Amino acid sequence: MRWMFSIKGSLIFIFFIFNSVLIKAQDKPEGNKELGNISGNFQTDFQYYRTDTLIGAPKVPEKGLLNGWLNLNYTRGNFRMGARYESYLNPLLGFDPRFEGTGIMYKYAGYTQGDLDITVGSFYEQFGSGMILRSYEERQLGFDNALEGIRLKYRPLKGIYLKGFVGKMRSFFTFGTGLIRGADGEIQINEIVPAWAEKKLRINLGGSFVSRYQADEDPVYKLPENVAAGAGRMSLYYGGLTFYGEYAYKVNDPSSTNNFIYRPGEGTFLTASYAAKGIGISLSAKRIVNMDFRADRTAFGNNLNMSFLPALTRQHTYRLITSIRMLLNPTEK
Amino acid sequence: MRYFLLLVFCVGIFYTKNINAQSHTISPLPPVALKDLQGKTINTGDLMNEGKPFIIDFWATWCKPCILELNTIAENYEDWQKETGVKIYAISIDDARNSPKVGPLASGKGWEYEILLDENSDLKRALNVNNIPHTFLLNGKGEIVWQHNSYTPGDEDLLYENLKNLIAGKPLTH
């Protein structure tokens, strides 16, 4: 969409109509708890394009492009279910053209019973800062890597949070080949140790593990079929002072993004911040070596990313610099 | 033709329309786990204000209108609290890149809100929020009674008016 930002001068050659209609209709008469609660929303983004030979804007033979999303969620007591219908006819410029099509790729049902939560179908998940697993949706950036499968969340004791899942990752209107398994645990020391409950110093410890299985069908290379990655993290809080550190390691994972090398991956992410009335300071440092981890070793472009390794340390307001996740080489920075 | 298209451009660009058909509907908060700035896990069921109404506002450090809105409300927040006893939960949807900057930003601005993190947008999705800022007004039982998307100066007055209407038992307006 680079040409979007090069509109200059007195004549405007390219016209956008960005018309977003949000319709929300939550229909539940007060006091009627039997029927549960349905909610939803609908969004369409339409753009009309005119050619501009002076700035080399790409030709759009369709003239108008449209993206649309319809969400429906239903909850009743501890039960929930929902689906999202998506339509990219055809995908707006700047979106991956592989999105072309319509369909329901996101549908789920879930149940929460006390400290146990189960989701069947599609779900989004993040372990720690997301260095080895983050599945999320950012529709304005044309990114959605929802997992589909089964996920369990369990809190065996106060202060201990466990998560586990098995699934496949969404790739536009299909799924990636790799089978993904993952588990994550977090311990909040101050919740477990009663003597620490009111302490100023708070400590959280966490660990996560993700594995991808993909059969080796390569005629030349002997590729690892099971690729594992693990990460450990710690957060410290002391008044306005916060420290977060995470270290991740991935076994050798030859893929098309690292040119099929067998080097293991490593990542370190450290942040420290201080906040007091009227003042805020934040520092962060990151080291990434060969950590690009995908649900299919042959995936390319902004697709099937399991690891969340944003190229820039800041999240920006404008779309251009936010959408380029892989501005720098993810294999080393 | 050129002027016509210029007009279309001016009118059509970022023309956002909100149709809210829910003035008399009430829905509870879906169960989702959030984190506070001290790393504590907070469930949406824990969001309460001792039986008094409260506000949930979705924002992010990169969202300029959200910060404008929260800054504007911050100027009157003390008065709002005195008059209505309201509490505001400002829920940031910043991801792992920016979530460590949420605390410093909020205290740098001198905000007195309860700041919570929704790092992977789980609550945002469960509440059908497409774009931020998105503001929810909840009654004393923790049920959503009113919501508003986007921010233009003056929207905070509408929110406060509805908050007072809610307390007085009057119908809410959009």
What does this entry look like structurally?
The complex is a heterodimer of chains A (about 325) and B (about 170). With about 325 residues, chain A is an all-beta fold. Chain A folds into two domains: about 1-105, no CATH class; about 115-333, Porin (Beta Barrel), CATH 2.40.160. Helices cover about 5% and strands about 50% of the residues of chain A. Chain A contains two helices and 19 strands. In chain A, the strands form three sheets. In chain A, strands 2, 3, 4, 5, 6, 11, 12, 13, 14, 15, 16, 17, 18 and 19 form a 14-stranded antiparallel β-sheet that branches. In chain A, strands 7-8 form a two-stranded antiparallel sheet. Chain A has a two-stranded antiparallel sheet with strand order 9-10. In chain A, a hairpin with a 2-residue loop joins strand 3 and strand 4. Residues about 1-30 and about 325-330 of chain A have low confidence and may be disordered. Chain B has an eight-stranded mixed β-sheet with strand order 2-9-8-5-6-7-3-4. Chain B is about 35% helix and about 25% strand. In chain B, helix 2 (about 65-85) links the parallel strand 5 and strand 6 (about 85-90). Chain B is an alpha+beta fold. Chain B has one domain: Glutaredoxin, CATH 3.40.30.10. Chain B is built from five helices and nine strands; from the N terminus they run αβββββαβαβαββα. In chain B, helix 2 packs parallel to helix 5 (about 155-170). Chains A and B meet through strand 1, strand 2, strand 3, strand 7 and strand 18 of A and helix 1, strand 1, strand 2, helix 3 and helix 4 of B.
